[in-house]
Amino acid sequence: MKKHFKRVFTISDWMEEENWLREQNKKGLKLCKLNPPIDFVFEECEPEDVVYRLDYKNTKAAEEYKQLYLDYGWEYCGSCFGWNYFRKPAPQINEESEGELFSDNESKLKMVEKIYQTRMLPLIAIFFLCLMPEISRFIQKTSFNPADIAFMIFFGILFVLYLWIFVHSGTKLNRLKKELKK
Question: Which of helix, strand or coil describes residue 52?
């Protein structure tokens, strides 16, 4: 039997997502599919401690990429918005490094920088090139019709959402970059 869960994880919440997926597996629900943007599909299984890891490539995983991880005991679970999902039973992990996709901080740092380049910078560009001019135009108006008010509410909601994403994701990614550079 399949179960669907709706969950939202931002670009900086992949570690929380990994932990959540692990907890679902311990409850007897194994990830079987991802439907963008927020639908996780699980199938029932025997409860088991399984470590999940995400790798950001901004592309769907190529066969040789999947095979590389398979050679190290990682099962490929799928891709969603450039994130590639892998899992490995916890009992197969003998050393801490076997429970990680990346063997060094430099590789993790490169992933964080790729997230900045391919996700954060486009969000900032959209914010300043699309949202800010519209909000500025509405502020300068002297009279408003109902359509103007509806658009203003819409752009106001987008403004707050973008601001939250910048603060939340930017703060977490910057903190992680500092930790990885140590």
Answer: strand
* Cβ-proximal residues to 129 (8 Å cutoff; 6+ apart), any chain: none
- CA torsion, points 146, 149, 150, 156, in degrees to nearest 10? 180
The pLDDT confidence band at residue 25, using thresholds 50, 70 and 90, is very high
Q: Which two tokens stand for residue 98?
A: 């076997």
Rounded to the nearest 10°, the torsion over CA 28, 33, 39, 43 is -30
Task: Read off the pLDDT of residues 90-120 as tens digits, 9 standing for 90 and up.
Answer: 999 988 778 888 878 888 889 989 998 898 8
Can the peptide bond before residue 91 be classed as cis, meaning omega within 30 degrees of 0? no
Mean pLDDT of 21-27: 98
- C-alpha closest to that of 43 among 24, 27, 52, 30: 30
Question: What residues are paired with 50 via a beta bridge?
Answer: 89
- Backbone φ and ψ for 57, nearest 5 degrees, come out as -120, -10
Cα distance between residue 29 and residue 24, in whole Å: 5
Q: How far apart are CA 133 and CA 126, in angstroms?
A: 11
Structure tokens belonging to residue 110? 């490169």
Q: What residues have CB less than 8 Å from 26, skipping those under 6 apart?
A: 47, 48, 49, 50
| Average pLDDT of the residues of the chain | 89
